[in-house]
Amino acid sequence: MSSHTTPEKVTTEHVLWYIPNQIGYVRIITAALAFFVMKNHPMMFTWLYTTSCMLDALDGTMARKYNQVSSLGAVLDMVTDRSSTAGLMCFLCVQYPQWCVFFQLMLGLDITSHYMHMYASLSAGKASHKSVGEGESKLLHLYYTRRDVLFTVCFFNELFYAGLYMHIFPQYANFGKWTSLISFPGYVFKQIANVVQLKRAALILADNDAKNANEKNKTY
User: pLDDT digit string (tens) for 172-219?
Assistant: First the structure.
């Protein structure tokens, strides 16, 4: 049996060391290292941060290939995405104090929409927060069911912030400006998707609450 094949009896240790979860750990390490060098070494930061982001496209592929899909992997993936973006945005708040409130609002929207959407999806009995029917939301259905769309939008979202980061350094200022401008449409799409999934999550949770309240009322 191949070392990558899921054993008949899966243990906690097996899940912890699933291939996609190992990739997730590497993402965390590279993102953390990127934060240590981001103030004074823009190129090193860019390579480390980009590596962490690009590995995001690999862990899901490995999970499906080796039948190693796990709740740990799904949560680890989302938490790493949110944490790495938050770290970069914290730095941008310092460097662009005039835009600090904007970054705070966008960070709040990013974290809130993803947390509520995942919680609502699991509460509704869905296997994943990415399970969105076309009838529920055409935009989210396109965003979550088309991996090429998901990757492209997330890539441009990170590229927009990375461009603002590069613009801080005089030698890369022009490159950073054009990077942010080119990626801006994808960034806007991502924020719209965040608003839509936040609304959808609120409706799912409210609907569940209404059903639970009605079930309780029947017992009286």
Answer: 999 999 999 999 999 999 999 999 999 989 998 999 899 888 888 876
CA 107, 162, 201 angle in degrees (round to 5)? 30
Question: 59, 81, 110, 207: which is the annotated catalytic residue?
Answer: 81
Structure tokens of 109?
């929207």
Q: What is the pLDDT of residues 117-143, one digit of tens each?
A: 888 888 877 656 666 766 667 888 888
Tell me if residue 77 is catalytic.
Answer: no
Domain count, the chain: 2
Residue 48 CA to its chain's centroid (Å) = 17
User: Cα–chain-centroid distance for residue 178?
Assistant: 24
Cβ contact 116:205 at 8 Å: yes
Mark whether 137 and 54 lie in a shared domain. Answer: no
Domain that holds residue 197: 96-213
66 and 133 in a single domain? The answer is no
Euclidean distance between CA atoms 154 and 183, whole angstroms: 10
Burial class (CB in 10 A: 0-12, 13-18, 19+), 210: exposed
In the predicted structure, residue 56 carries a pLDDT above the cut 80: yes
